[in-house]
Amino acid sequence: MNAETKNPDGGLESQDLKDRHLRADAQRNLDALLQAAVEVFETSGVDAPVREIAEKAGVGIGTVYRHFPKRSDLIAAVFRHEIDACADAAPRLAAKHEPVEALTRWMQRYAAFIATKRQLAPALHSGDVAYESLSAYFLQRLKPALQTLLESAAAAGEIRTDVDSKDLLSAIASLCMSAHDDRPDHTRRMVALLVDGLRYGRRSSQDAPS
Amino acid sequence: MNAETKNPDGGLESQDLKDRHLRADAQRNLDALLQAAVEVFETSGVDAPVREIAEKAGVGIGTVYRHFPKRSDLIAAVFRHEIDACADAAPRLAAKHEPVEALTRWMQRYAAFIATKRQLAPALHSGDVAYESLSAYFLQRLKPALQTLLESAAAAGEIRTDVDSKDLLSAIASLCMSAHDDRPDHTRRMVALLVDGLRYGRRSSQDAPS
DNA sequence: AACGAAGCGGAACGATGTTCCAAGTATATG
DNA sequence: CATATACTTGGAACATCGTTCCGCTTCGTT
Prior knowledge:
Chain A is mainly α. Helices cover about 65% and strands about 0% of the residues of chain A. The structure holds a DNA duplex.
């Protein structure tokens, strides 16, 4: 009924943050659990039984529920984990490649990530409390990541400057949602097309300062 | 592997068609089952337990599975039933109201129908064989229904003539999918806006026959 | 009325999410 | 190093579902 009964900070565990000393073995199990969940979800989809994940991680079912009270918490944790991985890829790519190349590679990376999560989309809008914060987190992490890449490429004069990163994120997501199984690289080409679109109008801005 | 093992006619039961004499009590149970399913799905959503529907219909679980071998068959049957109801509303409205009024009312009717089926959309694209034929049936029934209404209104010179009924169907569906719960009549106004859009360009066609 | 077949009800099965607690183990403390 | 204590664990057990099965009931016919 009231929202006060919920943990105000969003309360999702992470293997990176050590909030209150977590016992060493517990930490090890948590990591194994997350890794196993990633693999199982990739193999059998998000509908895979909790027991299968527990077995793959080499722990008991009780351990799973100790770390993730609800099945949806596990899914949410994995999702967050992958959002982080995708967001963290941005600065890494930016350091290794020139701006447009980094931007291109990241968009492809992001597209591949979204394609994996197609079956998650329904759940996201199902009103489940466990997924409520995910949409916000998604934008909070990915929008700045893309924005930085866009700004670098724009500063180098390689692409246009009038593109909103949020629009671009959802545009790519839409592309991936409609991808057919019989066109494995359809999405890749569509994203490449988007990048070309970004380059096309690069000289259209004349209000550039300095 | 091969498609030949599947029933070639699509094999979905209907309370309207009497394929092979159905025993009187069986027919009664089938009707009660369908009605109960409609009510339960409305109340508790499509994820409602089969047992709940059986109880509401006053029959045993075995009876449900006699008529609908799979849970998805029940859902599909209800969906078909409601598609029929929506399609049948078109000629009824056309007989009772002037063309544009009939068109408006039907579009609102259709929008209300779609809004109810939001949770069904994921299942429709999940690849389940039971739902495969539904998309086709959906278009087969609804497109002609809308098209007739559109043509009547166009013939009366009340609306433009360059609107594809299929596009309009999916446009309304899209509107309903993005509807928020805190805006109950948002969809209604959006559909009304669509109707106004139809009226706006009414003089743009000059190739109207007879 | 009697018979055969169609139909019915619900116990039972297997899978899955979730709870619970006795037993085990890491860590702090002496 | 030994001990105490609280944190963790494993998995049996429970609740809920979809689905199957089969003995019994009821309808339609002769």
